[in-house]
Design a protein that fits this description.
The chain has about 525 residues and is of the alpha+beta class. The protein is built from 20 helices and 14 strands. The strands form four sheets. Strands 1, 2, 3 and 10 form a four-stranded antiparallel β-sheet that branches. Strand 2 and strand 3 form a beta hairpin. The chain is elongated and about 85 Å long.
Length: about 525
């Protein structure tokens, strides 16, 4: 028997090298292949039964408790789903937290979620239209970004670390943006069609836009009231005026010697302006006195010696001089309309579930339901009070027991009234702090400035004036760049040339140009600021 076992072992050693022989007490057990196969089948069936059981349980939960798992995915709680694609609360919070604090102050998380939803819709549409972005395009875009911002790889790494963004996250963001840009180029910008006929029609329909208002050019010397009495300032101004009447050729020298207006010293005290831009006394004298005349005028700043140099009457800019600007304005308007139509179409054909929006509606409904019992209790209190009064009528003795019950109810209602009144007083005390309506309106211009929005315009352009008028007294808080050049409405300030400004007014918001007058609602949408 031992010899037989030895031969078997020897045979196995000479056979397939992949076969292993295990010895227990000198024996090599041989497992029956059929038994092993049956065991594997049993194991498979057990796993399958467990999977089916879990699926059945999940199906039952979805059937009888559809809202229990509706907001949950394997990645976490959902903020929204777009055609089945999840946007998790975690993703929303992470991306929102990367925004600048001043942006977060004016853009709610709900509004930011809407932007993320639109990004998903645009990305999906780009995929449907078989648009794609190569890694080389991402490299080029990233390189341009770093060059434009004078960033080294080390600088970029530090910034990404601060924002909690990986290199791959950045590349994915760039790729997504390039994909959306291609979609916009193909479905929006390529469909813009502005003709000369349309431009001419716009010119004829908006004559006030192309009117250059009446202007005056004047030079002045300001004798201010700092470290002087009013009489001393007046006396000094009269002495300088005498010198000028003798010889105006030395006006620039006298400006440098005497003027307290530091902003105009280097340009010989000269300003070109239209009506409504200077203090009333200064403006009235400059416009009403003849060219070449000198006058002494008193304002809140002190005493001004004003010399009127030139006057330009109101005039209409020729169509040929503004045709290019009009084309850009019309193209911008068409792009906005086409983009709005595209987004509206994508939203209409998509299945979007916004859980944050749902939650807000549910909270609003719950609040309303909680308020109704309090309102009913208040109404009941008023009703019961009026019922108690007729107790002195005939037959009151028979109603003594109900009356006692009513008095008890009245006592409880009185306590409820006191509690309600106390709550009302607490709410009333807090109300001014939670509803700063006027402050919000006044801070709109500050918000635009904080968002980096810049308005480019020209002093002679009536559309620029209209745009600025939208802000009223708060206009001084916006970022405004003057592009006009005195005495030449065709010329443009260098800073505006560098910015590529080709029409007035033009807003630059998030590096994008928006030409023409923008309604406050449009500006709020573009920047996230509250009006």
């Amino acid at each position: 028997m031992a010899k037989k076992e030895k031969n078997i072992a020897k045979k196995n050693n000479n056979g397939s090298k992949g076969l292993k022989v295990y010895k227990v007490n000198g024996n090599a057990p041989k497992e029956d292949s059929k038994a092993r196969r049956n065991k594997n089948i049993q194991t498979f069936l057990i796993v399958l039964i467990i999977i089916l059981a879990i699926a059945a349980i999940f199906s039952a939960i979805q059937t009888f408790f559809p809202n229990l798992l509706g907001k949950i995915s394997l990645a976490g709680e959902l903020a929204a789903t777009v055609n089945g694609k999840p946007i998790t609360i975690q993703k929303l919070n992470a991306e929102y937290d990367r925004l600048p604090l001043q942006y977060q102050y004016f853009v709610t998380k709900e509004a930011f979620l809407t932007q993320l939803i639109d990004e998903v819709l645009l990305t999906e549409e780009a995929a449907k239209q078989k648009l794609s972005v190569s890694e080389k395009e991402v490299d080029n875009s990233l390189g341009t970004f770093m060059k434009d911002n004078n960033l080294t790889q080390e600088n970029l790494t530090v910034i990404l670390k601060q924002k909690k963004i990986t290199q791959q996250d950045l590349r994915d963001l760039i790729k997504s943006q390039l994909l959306i840009d291609k979609l916009i180029e193909q479905n929006v910008k390529s469909k813009v069609n502005v003709t000369s006929a349309l431009a001419l029609q716009y010119y004829n329909d908006n004559p006030d836009t192309f009117k250059v208002p009446e202007q005056v050019t004047a030079r002045h010397i300001l004798i201010g009231l700092v470290n002087r009495t009013n009489d001393e300032a007046k006396k000094k101004a009269e002495e300088v005026l005498v010198k000028l009447k003798e010889d105006k050729s030395n006006f620039c020298d006298l400006v440098k010697q005497y003027s307290d207006d530091s902003g105009s010293i280097d340009k010989c005290g000269e300003y070109t302006f239209s009506r409504g831009q200077m203090v009333e006394e200064f403006e009235k004298t400059a416009f009403e006195q003849g060219i070449g005349k000198l006058s002494l005028v008193n304002t809140t700043f002190g005493y001004h010696i004003i010399w009127t140099i030139n006057k330009t009457p109101e005039q209409l800019v020729l169509f040929k001089d503004v045709e290019d600007q009009i084309n850009l304005v019309l193209a911008n308007q068409q792009e906005k309309q086409l983009y709005g139509d595209l987004i509206a179409k994508l939203r209409a054909n998509a299945k979007i579930i916004n859980y944050l929006e749902k939650k807000a509606l549910e909270n609003k409904t719950e609040t309303k339901i909680k308020e109704e019992p309090q309102q009913n209790a208040s109404a009941a209190t008023q009703t019961q009070v009026t019922i108690v009064e007729p107790a002195e009528k005939e037959g009151a003795a028979e109603e003594e027991e109900p009356l006692a019950e009513e008095e008890e109810i009245s006592k409880e209602q009185k306590e409820l009234e006191n509690e309600t009144q106390k709550a009302v007083e607490e709410v009333t005390e807090e109300k001014p702090a939670t509803q700063p309506v006027q402050e919000t309106k006044l801070s709109f211009a500050n918000c635009l400035a904080g968002q980096g929005a810049v308005l480019y315009g020209a002093y002679w352009d009536s559309s620029t004036k209209k745009q600025k008028d939208y802000f009223g007294i708060d206009v001084t808080n916006i970022n405004y760049i003057e592009c006009g050049v005195p005495d030449d409405f065709r010329a443009q300030a260098e800073i505006c040339q560098e910015a590529g400004i080709q029409a007035y007014p033009t807003w630059i918001i998030n590096s994008e140009k928006h030409m023409g007058i923008q309604e406050l609602k449009q500006l709020a949408t573009l920047t996230g600021c509250d009006i």
